[in-house]
Amino acid sequence: MKKVRVRLVVMVVGLTVAAAIIGGSVAFRQEPRQSVSVAGPLSNAAPTAATATPRSTNQEVPTTATATPSSSSQQVPTPAAGTAAPPADVKVDLSRLPLGRGPQMAYLVDRTVRGGTGPNAEIPGKQPITDVVRFGGGLLVMLSSGDFTSELRRLEPYGEAFLPGRVAGVTSLVGSPEEDLAAYAVEDKSAVYWVDSRDSELVQRSLKRAEYGRTQVLAVRGDIVYFGAEGKGYPAPETYYRWDSKTGQVTAVKTVRSLEGLDTAGTAAADFVSGAAQTFCSAVTELATGKRRFRTCDYSLDGFTPDDRTVVASEDFRGGGAEPLTAALDSTTGQVRRQWVGPEFVMAIAEDDDHLLMVVDSGEQTPVGIIRCSIATGTCEAALPLDRYGRNNVRLLGARS
Which of 95, 217, 221, 238 could form a disulfide with 183 if both were Cys (CB 3.0 to 4.6 A apart)? Predict the structure, then answer.
């Protein structure tokens, strides 16, 4: 993810190594569910919703949701005013899905990044890959460098080896939806960095404050970086912040309890609001006012479609492993627009306004692949055919896992 721009670079003592890399280089919880429709090719008609079981999401803004039509102008039936009956569960049979085009979002298979902007890129070496983002046609890669430590490396477009230099102690890494900006945090410096690949020379800005403990970057939207920082003491409370890397202004985000995902516009968040372990409840919360659009204890809210009208959801309340479903909820009302069941769902992310990409298999040690499903019609196709890559070796970059 060229024009002359004014650069604002906040210098931080001790960042010689970071400047070198950026400037010169860089379990599844199964529960029985009723399934009445079978997913088929994306060109098929929308599945029937006649016997679906309503799911309550404790809506706080009662609104009748309208489904988004697909490219073939098919629509999900809209419930009558005052009702909340969602579409039927869509049963996905992996053995019957037709082959479609490959994922348009960046994804990782073993050590190769495919899709998104830029060419296929092989990540060199043998260090375990902690995280990776597309960045300016190349890659920024977090690699494990020992127990609980990681380092940041950069791979230029078409590069076959990392450029000289590295940033040690990186705790987190995020990229922009356009794949041209990124942000990362460095633990021992309690510092956050914003980097821009859009000019002939990379621009870097940094933020460091003594009162911050361990920091985690959460999202980057233009010049703005959202991050969490632990306080001092034990247990260390975490506060969320909005940093304008251009002006240097830092604002505490006090309207959310646990910022787990941010919409494209940067105006609403997926927020874990109560509970513990597998009894968490989630909400969509407006950042400016703290108003909850809706709250649900049936789903974990994991991300948004690019048009911000739909929330991607699962039952994974930080439990890891795979899940028995992936759902698409209206981001204003919480109404279930579509829900897929059948395989084990490892992770999911919105590819565009209507389509979700999902990493799926039939259980540990079974072939794994990526499917694409339409929210409007429920129909699915194979985007990456099933193969024995291993569950942990196929990832959708940017998806919550």
Answer: 217
Cβ neighbourhood burial of 74 (10 Å; 0-12, 13-18, 19+) = middle
SS3 (DSSP) at 174: strand
Q: How confident is the model at residue 42 (pLDDT cuts 50, 70, 90)?
A: low
For the full predicted model, state whether its pTM sits above 0.90: no
Q: pLDDT value at position 49?
A: 34
CA distance 245 to 236: 25
In angstroms, rounded to a whole number, what is the distance separating the alpha carbons of residues 229 and 213?
Answer: 6
Residues in a beta bridge with 357: 349, 372
Which residues, listed in sequence order, are joined to residue 215 by a DSSP beta bridge?
229
Among candidate residues 360, 266, 347, the one with its CA nearest the CA of residue 306: 266
The sheet with strand 181-186 has its strands ordered as: 170-175, 181-186, 191-196, 203-208
Report which residue type is found at 186.
Answer: V
Under DSSP, is residue 16 helix (H, G, I), strand (E, B) or coil?
Answer: helix
What Cα–Cα distance (Å) separates residue 348 from each residue in 32, 114, 311?
21, 16, 11
Instruction: Please tell me the distance from the alpha carbon of residue 244 to that of residue 224, in angstroms, as a whole number.
Output: 5
Give residue-wise pLDDT tens across range 279-296. Answer: 678 999 999 999 999 999
